[in-house]
Design a protein that fits this description.
single chain; alpha+beta; Porin; twelve-stranded antiparallel β-sheet; 6 helices; globular; disordered C terminus
Length: 291
Amino acid sequence: MTELLHVLDLERIEVDLFRGESRDIGSPQVFGGQVLGQAVVAATRTVETGRELHSLHAYFLRRGDFNAPIVYQVDRSLDGSSFSNRRVVAIQHGKQIFHLSSSFQVPEVGNEHGLKMPDVPPPETLPTQEELLAPMLDQVSPRVRAFFERRRPFEFRPVEPPKYLEPEAREPRRHVWIRAVDRVPLDETLQRPLLAYVSDYHLLETALLPHAGTFLDRQMASIDHAMWFHDHLDVSDWFLYVLGSPNASGARGLASGTVFSRDGRHVATVGQEGLMRQRTAHSPTSDPAHG
């Protein structure tokens, strides 16, 4: 987590211009969640204190390169009496690799309702993802093994154990408990970028469930990502990520996610479409991080 917080602490190089480094999580290109989190940080640093991020819409355009910094250019599209809007373009090697539109709002009181958290086993009763994956590590390639064994800033405890070597077709629904491995300050300008970062995990993997596929036999990459923040969340405590996929077509999969706090509050909603192309000998290397 210390390393991730360092990566999210962007360098300001000019007015509305920031530079970020990349963190290697074992994938062949920069993890999409990292670019998403850094773009949120860049946008947030240009917004008046007290306005909170409530929605974002992003597109992943090109693969990110670990060996070069990423420059984030922020456009101050709107500063109204209640809302601020920011557009962020991520640039690497002179080309756009990502862009984000985000909206911030002065906190207000109004009508409230939210989805009910499903009844699932508590995280303390479930094995860790590392424990679930340990029996298969000797049966995968060194690259995949290194990806699974790499230490991460978040801990995952799936309710439904993953089956990467012998996948079975089943309903496109998953439940995963998640929390940060270390305590994180209760600062929304940090908590929301971290939630955006980790929201990029598990979505496309869910869209593959009805097709008995995994990232081991698919070329996979995020295309777009949308997120709505409804309430505050401490990512240092367990939260439940409920994932589903309503559709797959055109070599793309659509997935949605609902985030619940440990006490059952509906705190965020996520949507993502991604590439799910059958891998061939000539396909580009897929990104295991986008499972």
